[in-house]
Design brief:
By secondary structure, the protein is of the alpha+beta class. Helix content is 54%, strand content 13%. It folds into five domains: 2-114, no CATH class; 130-167 and 266-301, no CATH class; 178-261, no CATH class; 344-464, no CATH class; 471-567, Heat Shock Protein 90 (2-Layer Sandwich). It contains 24 helices and eleven strands. Helix 8 packs antiparallel against helix 9.
Length: 568
């Protein structure tokens, strides 16, 4: 693995300037590496992060990848990492013209990383540097443990068993709260607490009047005018007037800060704070392991939730920019072959690169024609909808495209359009939901057919393919003393039950006490496979049960709490 040569770097910097003129925003420098197939096989299990910590499962994946490669040689054309500076890798088998096309694709990714709000907690981070520090910490722990170092990998494995439950949205919320202005104006934390929560609670209890509240605001403003902003707060909160009326205020304020500081955002936080096992002197290294796994998972959460829209956006830009680049000359056929493999709609199946690229194009076209307006949405006539065009201009369309890339993840992009607009999107690109049934003429064969061209059905299919981790909360009310009680909120999706025992055993080890998991499972009535093929739309009856798993001393017990009959 080595940096690209200066000649290629010069070409790529020129591509970057063209991309910026077209509307992409790429901040800071970028690093580009040429990699061999061997490099890619070794980097793939680490999600292409060269400095990611070592883990025995990754070694197995490398061996497996080499075996598969010997049978079917394959590797990605490129990979880009969301770090500072942004790093991208290019296969050494790529011709020069192809690397230019790929670089435009990479620039689309980098713009998305640096501007999409779901990545805002990563904008100031050098994740490769952080990963290297984490790797060195784990290696030091292994050295200190000597012959018992295998337990480091056990702890990593147990923690990774729940890394999809990491508190991604609470982390975003906490970061926003730290950056946002105080709800009662430009106040300090203490003043915000006093005029907000403290006095509001007393007012709701009937202990003070609204007149007193306004008098306190006037007194605070008078202090600022007389003594200046820096001294006003100290004089106001240490005055005899306030201390004589509310002697408990300072204690209540300090307690509120402590509660905010120790609040838990996910199961990782809870375990690290409440596990008697991990908080013993000899096991505190496990908290470092959990922190590393949690931090790594948080880094990848945004990419998981925006994967398809990110790829569609990058595909949009590589097509738009490369078609106007001189590198395309004499390689038109090669480009058409490669690009069609990336963004073509397959006759059977689903290509997220193509569908999400088309979604961005469709939204941009609607903006250019003024179809995102309220007036257009009121039109019901199909012909009038087709002819509607307010000619808002290409610049306005590009602005809307950039805003969609900034504020949407996969779920929001799929559900951005109204039902009528999404139906037009499905009709324009000839999309459909495929089904399978018994072949009417060939015994033992299945026939794939067009099941639906409805926009609602197609959108339902896209929504069902979205990343949707389980929502599991810590229920302290149901937990007995010393227990960890996890409550899975049922959202019409069950956990993968075959993994439940192993995950609970790992959790029980880390927590050091009994762990319980309440979840929902279902069983379908037995239906002959041929009947299902003959009547694919027939919905069998499903028995839904609320189940409690209990893990104590590596022993798993399953108890059915209740049964409910419902349709699939």
């Amino acid at each position: 693995m080595e940096l690209i040569d200066q000649k290629t770097k010069k070409i790529m910097e020129e591509c970057k300037e063209k991309a910026k003129i077209a509307g992409l925003e790429v901040r800071g420098e970028t690093l580009e590496y040429i990699t061999t197939n061997q490099d890619l096989l070794e980097l793939s299990p680490k999600a292409m992060i060269p400095t990611l910590y070592d883990y025995w499962i990754d070694d197995i994946d490398v061996i497996r990848g080499k075996w598969l490669y010997s049978i079917y040689p394959h590797n990605p054309y490129e990979t880009v990492i969301n770090t500072r500076p942004a790093i991208s890798f290019y296969n050494d088998n790529n011709p020069d013209w192809f690397n230019v096309m790929i670089f435009y694709h990479v620039l689309g990714h980098i713009h998305y990383f640096q501007n999409n709000i779901f990545f805002r907690n990563t904008w100031a981070d050098d994740f490769c540097g952080q990963a290297l520090a984490d790797k060195r910490l784990l290696n030091r722990i292994r050295e200190e443990m000597g012959a018992e170092k295998r337990w480091v990998d056990y702890a990593i494995e147990f923690a990774r068993g729940i890394d999809n439950l990491v508190g991604y949205y609470p982390e975003l919320e906490a970061a926003d709260a730290g950056c946002a202005h105080a709800p009662y104006g430009d106040l300090s934390q203490k003043a915000d607490f006093y005029f907000g929560e403290f006095l509001r609670r007393l007012f709701e209890e009937g202990s003070l009047t609204m007149k007193f509240y306004h008098q306190e605001i006037d007194r605070y403003n008078a202090c600022q005018r007389t003594f200046g902003k820096e001294q006003a707060e100290d004089l106001f909160f240490n005055s005899n007037d306030l201390l004589s009326k509310f002697p408990e205020f300072n204690g209540v304020f300090e307690k509120s800060k402590q509660i905010q500081k120790t609040g838990t955002r996910d199961i990782f936080d809870y375990l690290m704070q409440h596990s008697t096992f991990m908080n013993t002197a000899e096991n505190r290294w496990m908290k470092d392991v959990m922190s590393i796994v949690r931090r790594t998972s948080l880094f990848f959460q945004a990419q998981i939730r925006t994967h398809s829209s990110n790829e569609g956006y990058a595909s949009y830009w590589h097509e738009k920019l490369f078609l106007g680049d001189d590198a395309l000359k004499s390689h038109e056929v090669d480009y058409a072959r490669v690009n069609s493999a990336v963004v073509a709609n397959p006759k059977i199946g689903f290509n997220p690169y193509a569908v999400y690229k088309h979604l961005f194009e469709f939204i941009e076209d609607m903006a250019v024609k003024g179809k995102l307006s309220h007036n257009f949405q009121l039109i019901q006539d199909r012909e009038l909808r087709k002819r509607f065009d307010q000619r808002c201009g290409a610049e306005y369309g590009k602005d809307v495209l950039l805003h969609a890339a900034k504020y949407c993840d996969d779920a929001q992009l799929v559900n951005f359009l109204s039902d009528d607009d999404f139906q037009e999107f499905v009709d324009r690109y000839k999309l459909f939901v495929a089904g399978a049934r018994i072949h009417p003429e060939k015994f033992g064969y299945a026939e794939v057919y067009v099941k639906s061209r409805s926009g609602k059905d197609y959108r339902k299919m896209l929504n069902e393919r979205l990343y949707h981790p389980p929502y599991i909360v810590i229920n302290e009310a149901k937990a007995k003393k010393g227990e960890l009680y996890l409550d899975h909120v049922y959202e019409k999706r069950t956990l993968v039950t075959r993994y439940v025992p192993a995950v609970l055993i790992g959790l029980s080890y880390l927590f050091g006490e009994t762990v319980k998991l309440e979840t929902t499972e279902f069983e379908m009535d037995s239906v002959d496979i041929w009947d299902r093929f003959n009547n694919p739309d027939e919905k069998p009856e499903v028995t839904t049960s609320r189940v409690l798993y209990t893990c104590k001393n590596k022993s798993i017990q399953r108890q059915v709490l209740a049964y409910v009959k419902e349709e699939e």
